[in-house]
Design goal:
Strand order of the largest sheet: 6-8-5-9-7-10
Structural class: alpha+beta
Largest sheet: 6 strands, mixed
Strand content: 15-25%
Helix content: 25-40%
Shape: globular
């Protein structure tokens, strides 16, 4: 029997592989460290006495402020949404951070809480320190406007996750209130008034519809809103969300407010009822506050129905106060002192079986 011929199988030659690094994958630790060094002074400028550790630790340390007997912590988190797309298109990044802070602190002040500190999350495909610094400058400004400290955050460089030049933002804030002084108060009753505070524009909600209107109508962000307007459409839309914290806290500390509502996604229809007891409903008159040229323009260009406008946008009212009718003159005077236009836009009434929690008269 013949023997099978043996064959020798040669191993393929292997060249030494190139040594790969994190930088080869698109992440530069050195760039990130340099970026942290640039933004550290911005955070330091928002420091409060209760901050116990410098920026850069694994966790942020914050002492409970003195003077509280039965403190309750109140927290809120949010993002900026697709308003970021307009910031990218206009290459304007210095105010979008204000929006981020505002969306969080306006929510927690509704419950009568003083914002204490804020943390952000900034994520991008490739970190551009110049743009990132502009974003954090806005965050720091928002913290100053609301009186809270920027105590930390996260900067994530994630190649392949985002289109070139784009980033995402999120954040959260923690505040404090006395348990017995939490809002909304149980003292709300029929006959109380609803006071609306002017918004600074679209704020940070409804931008998916805004962008659809722009796309459908072929609008330019760089052209005036209307002939003769002082600002372009883009400038109107990127106006940062107004921060109502200082005014709201003063009203609360003076015992003038029974409740607040931050008018965000869902508009007046969706947000005002959130702070009402089941026995009451809000009755609002649409003609009680002036029509905003920006919202008129968006409604006209998009052929948007009135009801759709009210449940998508703030329509010129970014925050509401519920108060006793007798206190309305004092509240309106304080709003004027804070340079915030305000109007009595409705009242509370008893809610019968089958009634909606929100009624509007056109």
């Amino acid at each position: 029997m013949a023997q099978a011929k043996k064959t020798t199988r040669k191993s393929p030659s292997r060249r030494p592989a190139k040594r790969l690094s994190y930088a080869d994958a698109g992440v530069s630790i050195e760039t990130g460290d340099a970026f942290i060094g640039k933004i550290a002074p911005l955070a330091k400028a928002t420091r409060r006495p209760e901050v116990l550790a410098p920026l850069g630790g694994f966790g942020s340390l914050f002492a409970i402020p003195k003077g509280y007997r039965d403190p309750v912590l109140v927290s809120g988190t949010d993002g900026v949404g697709t308003k970021l797309k307009l910031a990218f298109e206009m290459n304007k990044h210095d105010t979008i951070g204000i929006d981020l802070v505002a969306m969080c602190v306006n929510d927690i002040v509704v419950q009568g809480a003083e914002p204490l500190f804020f943390l952000d999350y900034f994520s991008t495909g490739k970190l551009k320190p110049a743009i990132g610094t502009q974003v954090v400058k806005g965050i720091a400004k928002g913290c100053k406007l609301s009186g809270c400290a920027l105590v930390g955050g996260e900067t994530a460089e994630m190649p392949g996750m985002y289109a070139p030049g784009e980033y995402d933002l999120a954040g959260f804030s923690v505040g404090i209130a006395e348990r017995k002084q939490l809002l909304p108060a149980k003292a709300m009753r029929a006959g109380d008034v609803v006071i609306g505070l002017a918004s600074s524009g679209v704020h940070s909600n409804g931008f998916s519809l805004v962008r659809k209107i722009i796309e459908t109508r072929g609008l330019s962000l760089k052209k005036p809103l209307r002939p003769g307007a002082k600002k372009t459409l883009g400038q109107y839309l990127l106006e940062p969300t107004k921060i109502y914290v200082p005014l709201a806290l003063e009203l609360h500390r003076k015992g003038l407010a029974k409740g607040f509502a931050h008018i965000t996604g869902g508009g007046l229809i969706g947000n005002l009822p959130r702070v009402l007891p089941g026995s009451l409903k809000a009755r609002v008159t649409r003609g009680a506050w002036p029509r905003s040229p920006l919202f008129e323009f968006l409604q006209e260009q998009g052929n948007v129905a009135d009801a759709e406008m009210l449940k998508t946008f703030n329509c010129g009212v970014g925050f509401t106060i519920i108060a006793a009718e007798k206190d309305a003159p004092k509240i309106l005077a304080l709003c004027k002192a804070h340079k915030t236009p305000a109007w009595i836009i409705g009242d509370l009434a008893r809610r019968k079986s089958g009634d909606e929690a929100f009624e509007i008269t056109w």
